[in-house]
């Protein structure tokens, strides 16, 4: 690689990675009443990124794949921040914020193709494990076959497909835990994949992020999603070895609620449930399969500041499910509103693996 290209990468990556971290910070701490304060804390990394963007202009053709990935990631990151700034200036509303934050996963998807670059690979490692030399060595090796990020009929706007990630150091010599992560209402699996990828990559789990068959999960009426999830499980098991004792169903908001709807059914194949920021109707505990509930590990995560589903709902759910015989772990996060707390993933994986 030429010295000029190296110098440009060294100049571009820090503000790009910082802008992506800031977008993630806003997504994690989004609260309508605190939006201005959160944006002030997030800062202005996009200004530095905007300043270095022209450095990608005149690269040799042989580095086109790196240039293209960086350009796509930069453009998405800047578009996301521009959308947030519009709302910060007094135009737009909460829906506009959600639209702006959708650019974050697009930027991450483009950037992930460059994990051959050590700073990029490090970015996609959980912060507390970035000094783990053994993990770094596994990730630096030539990827094994059938690993990385895959999309199956899951283009933006499509329904019923799935995206997934298999650690690059996957080997069929052993079985691997499965995390199936369900997006929130009107979301999609291709974006939600990035809420979990860093932890699946760092801690060795196969990650599947499906997209609902309808505009959101089948919380009422005909359930077309459960058969689709079972189809996806079958498809994944044909190519990769899954540990049948560690099959987690988790989800955010409507996805968390649907993890109850399908996961409490006696025919469910999932061994663990971990709903996040979900709602739960008391009748669900009454109609759930009693044998299925007995001893079922359930990890409930909810924010004390949740403005969509008040935390009292989660506290009541803990009591109802515990009384029904489930083995409930409850995590209430003081500073969390109706957002996905990516920091909980490590604890959920430890729990899934029998460490809690």
Automatic annotation (TrEMBL):
<dbReference type="InterPro" id="IPR050955">
    <property type="entry name" value="Plant_Biomass_Hydrol_Est"/>
</dbReference>
<feature type="domain" description="Phospholipase/carboxylesterase/thioesterase">
    <location>
        <begin position="227"/>
        <end position="343"/>
    </location>
</feature>
<dbReference type="InterPro" id="IPR029058">
    <property type="entry name" value="AB_hydrolase_fold"/>
</dbReference>
<dbReference type="GO" id="GO:0016787">
    <property type="term" value="F:hydrolase activity"/>
</dbReference>
<protein>
    <submittedName>
        <fullName>Phospholipase</fullName>
    </submittedName>
</protein>
<keyword id="KW-0732">Signal</keyword>
<dbReference type="InterPro" id="IPR003140">
    <property type="entry name" value="PLipase/COase/thioEstase"/>
</dbReference>
<keyword id="KW-0378">Hydrolase</keyword>
<dbReference type="Pfam" id="PF02230">
    <property type="entry name" value="Abhydrolase_2"/>
</dbReference>
């Amino acid at each position: 690689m030429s010295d000029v290209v190296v110098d440009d990468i060294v100049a571009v990556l820090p503000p790009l990675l910082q802008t992506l971290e800031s977008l993630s910070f806003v997504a994690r701490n989004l609260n309508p009443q605190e939006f201005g304060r959160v944006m002030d804390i997030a800062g202005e990394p996009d200004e530095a990124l905007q300043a270095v963007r022209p450095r990608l202009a005149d690269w040799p053709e042989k580095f086109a794949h790196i240039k293209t990935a960086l350009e796509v990631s930069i453009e998405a990151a800047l578009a996301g921040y521009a959308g947030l700034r519009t709302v910060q200036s007094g135009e737009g509303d909460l829906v506009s914020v959600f639209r702006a934050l959708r650019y974050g996963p697009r930027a991450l998807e483009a950037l992930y193709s460059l994990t051959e670059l050590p700073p990029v690979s490090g970015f996609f490692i959980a912060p507390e494990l970035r000094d783990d030399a053994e993990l770094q060595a596994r990730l630096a090796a030539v990827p094994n076959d059938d690993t990385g990020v895959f999309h199956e009929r899951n283009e933006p706007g499509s329904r019923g497909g799935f995206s997934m990630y298999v650690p690059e150091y996957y080997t069929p010599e052993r079985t691997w835990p499965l995390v199936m992560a369900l997006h929130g209402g009107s979301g999609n699996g291709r974006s939600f994949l990035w809420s979990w990828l860093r932890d699946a990559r760092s801690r060795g789990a196969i990650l599947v992020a499906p997209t609902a068959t309808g505009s959101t999960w089948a919380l009422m009426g005909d359930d077309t999603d459960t058969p689709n999830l079972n189809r996806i499980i079958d498809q994944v098991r044909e190519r990769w070895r899954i540990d049948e004792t560690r099959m987690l169903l988790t989800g955010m908001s409507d996805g968390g609620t649907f993890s109850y709807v399908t996961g409490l059914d006696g025919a469910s194949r999932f061994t663990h449930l971990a709903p996040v920021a979900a709602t739960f109707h008391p009748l669900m505990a009454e109609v759930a399969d009693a044998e299925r509930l007995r001893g079922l590990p359930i990890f409930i995560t909810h924010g004390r500041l949740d403005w969509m589903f008040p935390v009292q709902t989660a506290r009541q759910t803990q009591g109802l499910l515990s009384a029904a015989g489930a083995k409930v772990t409850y995590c209430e996060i003081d500073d969390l509103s109706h957002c996905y707390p990516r920091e909980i993933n490590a604890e959920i994986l430890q729990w899934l693996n029998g460490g809690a």
